[in-house]
Specification:
The chain is an alpha/beta fold. About 45% of the residues lie in helices and about 10% in strands. Helix 1 packs parallel to helix 3, helix 2 (about 75-80) crosses helix 16 and helix 3 runs antiparallel to helix 15 (about 305-320). One of its GO terms (molecular function) is 3-hydroxyisobutyryl-CoA hydrolase activity.
Length: about 375
């Protein structure tokens, strides 16, 4: 395997070790390939049951990104070659990606994620699985799937629906770029450090008295990060999400046509909100419907059931949704002129939405049937 992902262990004064995963395709903003996902699944599964590993750290090479998402080009090419069919490539990529995310959520040991720079899509799936999620002055966090005919997957059905008010729906529809304060507000991040503090943090972690008790190790890492974060609270940027929560809730109130009308007629001087408005209105009308279907799941589903729901929707999007056209316009031809299947949100056929959210597998044949 090429060094697209690097695994190292750091020794500590306690005699226990820290497993470090570095996503290492800096020129591609550390976007996840299937090979990277496979390698991480194997190594993290080993570390999970290795008593000498007290804690795991995920970070990205370079200064621009932790991880800008999944590399979906292979899925695109397979789907274009097999129109209206669910491809092996789509099934394999999304299945393995969600298995990796789920492993992180269920890891037991502390998982620290250094969420510096761009954290988008699949990168946010990794980050959400961490127990200790650090954001920095450079963090730019978003779920931009509406721009490629998808919807916020990688567990978004779980974490977006647990955010304050209508924030999750707003983030899904607008691909709004969160800063560190926004991420802390919606609890995607739980600690704030400066982007130049990664090395000092690793040094400090080497001096922690780690044990073989997961609960103790969680507490020790929490204590260290709380201590280091304290000095930066004064330098936190403003959170637009928190400051304008009431307006966001009003903007997102009602059914899909209400929200579309409210966004279409919005007249604002706020640059961040103008950008959010523009992205939402240019997004896939099918994605809009899927994001509303996702929001309607509420908080009833377990994390495991959210991933099962998402896998069906994701593979369906690749075979009969706007995904291929969105990827073509943004990543392949880069003309940024997608020709969506439906002209606007109002024109989307209800049968199409039903097809997209209907699982292609019987429950006992589901690729994630072993998620409990």
């Amino acid at each position: 395997m090429t060094q697209d992902v690097i695994f190292q262990t750091l020794g500590t004064l306690s005699g226990q070790s820290i497993g470090v995963v570095t996503l290492n395709i800096e020129k591609a903003l550390n976007a996840l390939t299937l090979d990277m996902v496979d390698a991480m699944q194997v190594q993290l599964t080993r570390w999970k049951s290795d008593d000498s590993i007290a804690c795991v750290v995920l970070n990205g090479a370079g200064e621009k990104a932790f991880c800008a998402g999944g590399d979906v080009r292979a899925i695109y090419h397979a789907s274009i070659a097999n129109p209206n069919n669910i491809t092996e490539e789509a099934c394999e990529f999304f299945t393995k990606e969600y298995q990796l995310d789920y492993l992180l959520h269920q890891f037991g040991k502390p998982v620290m994620v250094w969420g510096d720079g761009i954290v988008m899509g699949g990168g946010l799936g990794l980050m959400a699985g961490g127990s200790h999620r650090i954001v920095t002055d450079r963090s730019r966090i978003a779920m931009p799937e509406v721009t490629i005919g998808l919807y916020p997957d990688v567990g978004g059905s779980y974490f977006l629906n647990r955010m304050p008010g209508k924030t999750g729906l707003f983030l899904g529809l607008t691909a709004y770029n969160m800063n560190a304060a926004d991420a802390l507000y919606v609890e995607l991040g739980n600690y704030y450090l400066n982007s130049d503090e990664k090395e000092p943090l690793f040094d400090a972690m080497a001096e922690v008295m780690w044990s073989q008790d997961n609960a103790e190790n969680h507490q020790r890492l929490s204590d260290l990060l709380t201590d280091l974060s304290k000095q930066h609270i004064a330098t936190l940027p403003t959170s637009h999400l928190q400051q304008f929560q009431q307006q966001i809730d009003l903007l997102m109130a009602g059914d899909i046509l209400d929200v579309h009308y409210q966004l279409s007629t919005l007249n604002t001087e706020l640059d961040w909100l103008k950008r959010a408005q523009k992205t939402a209105l240019a997004g896939s009308p099918i994605s809009w419907h899927l994001i509303f279907e996702q929001a309607a799941l509420g908080t009833e589903l377990s994390l495991a059931d959210c991933f099962k729901w998402e896998l069906g929707v994701s593979v369906n999007c690749c075979s009969m949704g706007d995904f291929c056209e969105g990827v073509r316009a943004l990543l392949i031809d880069k003309d940024r002129q997608p020709k969506w299947l439906f002209a606007d949100v109002d024109a989307v056929d209800a049968n199409k939405v039903t097809q997209l959210v209907t699982s292609p597998w019987a429950e006992d044949k589901h690729p994630l049937a072993d998620f409990t």
